[in-house]
Amino acid sequence: MALTTSGGASILTPEEVGALVVQPLMEQSVAAQVSTVIPTTSHDFRVPIVSDDPAAGWTAEGAEIAASDPTIDETVVTPSKLAGLTVISNELATDSSPAALAVVGDGLVRDLRRKLDAAFFANTTADGPDGLLSLTATEVDAGDTWTNLDWAESAKSEAETLHATLTAFVASPATALTLATLKEEATSNKALLSADPTTPTSRVIAGVPLYVAPDIADGIVWGIPRQHVLMVVRQDASVVTDTSAYFSSDRVAVRATLRVGFGYTYPAAVIKVNITP
Q1: What is the pLDDT averaged over residues 113-130?
Q2: What confidence category does residue 275 fall into, taking pLDDT thresholds of 50, 70 and 90?
Q3: Core-most of 42, 147, 220, 270, by most CB within 10 Å?
Q4: Residue 269: inside a domain, yes or no?
Q5: Euclidean distance between CA atoms 234 and 240, whole angstroms
């Protein structure tokens, strides 16, 4: 991680880049929360995949054990550059207080988080990674409208059939609101969604946490198996400042760049739940 130009020396030191930008981004991004985040220093990250396990078999005492080899494949993740830009006043740039640092870091994180989550839930992104919509995921039909939560059990069962475990559901804010307001009966005010006493503000469906992402189309819920969805992050993030671009307005440009890629080791284990009006 590096910081260049004297104009930004009072804003971020190299040690603060991770604490103010990278770490909060990983904590706030929905994509990062539902994936397995893997830091790397390599240009490409290769993940071995066993597409066919070695064959075991019952064997008589003293008999030769039949040898078999697994079928090994790999997926290659090449992180793409994600960049965010914010413009601040020179007065803020020369202020080394924690409040000034927080303003800069929060602005960058919000910008990067929006772009990161948008790419994760998209199909393909120009100059960026392929998202969930690019996968040949397993689909579950939830019916004409969201009337119950039976689809969640179906999604879990589909994943279990593939020897995977769903660790998160993700939906748009509108879909999440519809699900959260479903009642046990027409005359009841008791919600169908279960509550987690340890995190009272969270939503849980069939024992699986529900996350919300504005970049998902309404009417879709993604079931994510964390062990098969990877977010690869290069460890060369940088924050650079420049005073020349906005010289006439006495402002400073602050740019953050990092490289991120997505990898899917078992695309079929990702579940896409749809309603079909």
Answers
A1: 95
A2: very high
A3: 270
A4: yes
A5: 17
Pairwise CA distance, residues 39 & 234, whole Å = 6
Closest CA to 47 of 199, 237, 276, 264: 264
Cβ neighbours of residue 178 closer than 8 Å, sequence gap 6 or more:
146
DSSP 162-181: TT----EEEE-HHHHHHHHT
151 or 96: which carries more pLDDT confidence? 151
DSSP symbols for 40-98: ESSSSEEEEEEEEPPPP----TTSPPPP---EEEEEEE-PEEEEEEEEEEHHHHT--SH
**Is residue 239 in some structural domain?**
yes
pLDDT score for 71 = 67
Q: What is the pLDDT of residues 151-183, one digit of tens each?
A: 999 999 999 999 899 999 999 999 999 999 898
Domain that holds residue 22: 6-50+70-274
Mean pLDDT to the nearest integer, 29-50: 90
Name residue 51's amino acid. S
CATH number at residue 27: 3.30.2320.10
Task: Find tokens 């179906």 and name the residue.
Answer: 154
Confidence grade of residue 194 (pLDDT, cut at 50, 70, 90): low
Q: Is residue 41 part of a domain?
A: yes
d(CA 193, CA 210): 10
Residue 58 maps to a domain: no
C-alpha dist (Å) from residue 216 to 174, 241, 247, 274: 10, 33, 39, 12
What gap in Å lies between CA 110 and CA 131, rounded to an integer? 20
The domain total for the chain is: 1
